[in-house]
């Protein structure tokens, strides 16, 4: 769900490679270029979370960092499930994947690889995507309002 951000909630910043979940009314915020943020929200329990991953996956099967999508996605779901969420009830919003470095060829379009990974992972795990704003050439600031589950986006820079 996309909406306009209001300024009356506490804002928690999600750093690159980090994820946060909350059961309390607040706003989770991040800034994205080629990275992707997936916001998950449980409309019944009214809590949710956001990750911010930088690469789709790590070459190492032992990697535990959430800067990789193949680790950040299951970790976000697991944390919400520990708070009582049911995976089938979760709604997803996907943001990011901009091509902010124009010198890169289409073959190494990192943003597209990140977006493709996120959307495929959500589909494989039967989590419904209710909103997305991906690709393009501009960075984004993304907010998730934990109280309502709505997301807002503001583009930054680009051509």
Task: Explain what this protein looks like in three dimensions.
With 159 residues, the chain is of the alpha+beta class. It has a single domain (11-156), classed as 60s Ribosomal Protein L30, Chain: A (2-Layer Sandwich). It has helices spanning 69-82, 110-124, and strands at residues 11-13, 19-22, 27-32, 36-42, 47-51, 91-96, 128-134, 139-145, 151-156. A five-stranded mixed sheet has the order 2-5-4-6-7, covered by helices on one side. It has a four-stranded mixed sheet with strand order 1-3-8-9, with no helix packed on it. A hairpin with a 4-residue loop joins strand 4 and strand 5. The chain is globular and about 40 Å long. The two termini are 26 Å apart. Residues 1-5 have low confidence and may be disordered.
Keywords:
159 residues; alpha+beta; 60s Ribosomal Protein L30, Chain: A; five-stranded mixed β-sheet; 2 helices; 9 strands; 18% helix; disordered N terminus
Structural topology:
Elements (H helix, E strand, L loop, with lengths): L10 E3 L5 E4 L4 E6 L3 E7 L4 E5 L17 H14 L8 E6 L13 H15 L3 E7 L4 E7 L5 E6 L3
Parallel strand pairs: 1-3, 6-7
Antiparallel strand pairs: 2-5, 3-8, 4-5, 4-6, 8-9
Structure, briefly:
With 159 residues, the protein is of the alpha+beta class. The protein has helices spanning 69-82, 110-124, and strands spanning 11-13, 19-22, 27-32, 36-42, 47-51, 91-96, 128-134, 139-145, 151-156.
- The end-to-end span amounts to 26 Å
Q: pLDDT under 50 segments (min length 5)?
A: 1-5
Please tally the helical runs, counting DSSP H or I stretches of 4 or more residues.
2
CATH C-level class? Alpha Beta
The dominant shape is globular
Question: What is the succession of H and E elements?
Answer: EEEEEHEHEEE
Q: Give me the side-by-side strand order of the main sheet.
A: 2-5-4-6-7
CATH topology: 60s Ribosomal Protein L30, Chain: A
Whole-number count of domains: 1
> What is the CA-based Rg, rounded?
15 Å
The helix fraction, in percent, is 10-25%
Average pLDDT over all residues: 91
Total beta strand runs: 9
Tell me the strand percentage band: 25-35%
CATH-defined architecture: 2-Layer Sandwich
Main sheet properties: 5 strands, mixed
Q: Name the structural class.
A: alpha+beta
